[in-house]
Design goal:
Blueprint: E1 6-8, H1 14-18, E2 25-36, E3 44-56, H2 59-80, E4 86-97, E5 107-115, H3 117-123, H4 131-134, E6 145-156, E7 165-175, H5 179-193, E8 200-202, E9 205-219, E10 229-238, H6 239-245, H7 253-264
C-alpha cells in the first residue's frame, strides 16, 4: 500500500499539537500479520493488514499501543485457527494522527497517487463487488458502522497532466442502518467532494476534481472506539515481499511529519490542493 502511494496525516490544528502530550489524541494505525505455514521465504502465505483506532498522549505511546494490540490479535488468531498454524506479527504498516474523534463522516486517511487510465478503471468497483455486499467476514449484527474509500481524479480543463492522472483515495467512516444506506451515503459524500471546472490550478493549467466511484465499502468489525479494529484486508504474499513493505518506525506517517516539524517548523495543516 505504501509503494507509489503517499499516505498523509489529516489536517491538525496548531493548538492540538501544542497540547498533544497533555491529553489523549486519536490515531489510526495498521499492522500486518501472516500465517506461518513453514514454507520458504518465496512461498506465498496468507496475510492480513488490520486497521485500528486508538488514543494516546504521544505518538511513541500510540506506537506502543498498536504493538500491544497487534500482538494480542496475532495471539487470538493462533488460538482460533483450526489448522493449528501460527500467525506471526510482521510489524506496523502505518500510524497517523486524526484531527478529531472519529464519528460519522470523519475522514480517516487519504492516499495520493499517479494512475494510468486503465489503473483508475481497475481501482473503481461495481456495487456488487464491494465487500459490504459480498463479505463472509463475521460482523456483529449490531454493527452500524462502515468504511468507504472514495476515488477522485484530477481532470485538467486546460493543458494536460501527461499519460497519468493525479488520484486521491479518501477513506471515510460512516454510520448507516445497512449496506444499502451506507452505499448511498458514500456516493453522496463522493459527489460533494467533486468540484466545478476551473476550481483550482495545477502546473499553470486549470483543473477540477471528478468523483469516479468507490474503491471499497466494508462493514466495520467494531464501533469507532479506543482500541477498536475497524477492518482488515486479506491477500497472499511471499515473506520476501512482506519484509520489503514493512516500514521502520521513523518511516511511519506521524513520525515523518514530526521529523519535518522539528527540522523546519512546517505547518501542521495538510497541503492537499
Amino acid at each position: 500500500m505504501r509503494s507509489g502511494v503517499v499516505l498523509a496525516c489529516l489536517p491538525l490544528l496548531n493548538e492540538r499539537c501544542e497540547t498533544m502530550t497533555q491529553r489523549a489524541q486519536w490515531y489510526i494505525a495498521s499492522f500486518m500479520v501472516h500465517r506461518d505455514l513453514g514454507g520458504g521465504s518465496e512461498a506465498l502465505c496468507a496475510t492480513r493488514q488490520y486497521w485500528c483506532l486508538l488514543t494516546a498522549e504521544s505518538s511513541n505511546r500510540a506506537h506502543t499501543g498498536v504493538m500491544d494490540l497487534a500482538r494480542a490479535t496475532a495471539s487470538a488468531l493462533e488460538t482460533s485457527d483450526t489448522t493449528r498454524s501460527g500467525w506471526i506479527l510482521d510489524g506496523i504498516m502505518e500510524l497517523l494522527m486524526l484531527s478529531e474523534a472519529p464519528s460519522h463522516g470523519s475522514e480517516l486517511i487519504w492516499e495520493q497517487a499517479e494512475f494510468l487510465p486503465e489503473e483508475i478503471l481497475r481501482c473503481v468497483k461495481e456495487k456488487a463487488d464491494l465487500s459490504a455486499f459480498r463479505s463472509h467476514v463475521q460482523v456483529p449484527d449490531s454493527s452500524e458502522w462502515y468504511v468507504c474509500e472514495l476515488v477522485l481524479v484530477e481532470v485538467h480543463d486546460t493543458g494536460s497532466h501527461g499519460d497519468s492522472a493525479l488520484v486521491w483515495i479518501n477513506t471515510y467512516l460512516l454510520r448507516a442502518a445497512d449496506a444499502e444506506s451506507a452505499y448511498r451515503s458514500a456516493i453522496s459524500l463522493g459527489g460533494e467532494q467533486a468540484t466545478e471546472p476551473e476550481s483550482h490550478r495545477c502546473d499553470d493549467d486549470t483543473a477540477h476534481w471528478e468523483f469516479r466511484g468507490l474503491r471499497e465499502l466494508v462493514q466495520a468489525l467494531a464501533p469507532p472506539e479506543d482500541g477498536a479494529i475497524l477492518w482488515y484486508e486479506q491477500s497472499e504474499r511471499s515473506l520476501d515481499e512482506v519484509r520489503t513493505i514493512v516500514p521502520r518506525q521513523r518511516e511511519l506517517g506521524v513520525f515523518e511529519w514530526e521529523e519535518r516539524q522539528s527540522r523546519s517548523g512546517e505547518s501542521p495543516v495538510s497541503d492537499r490542493s
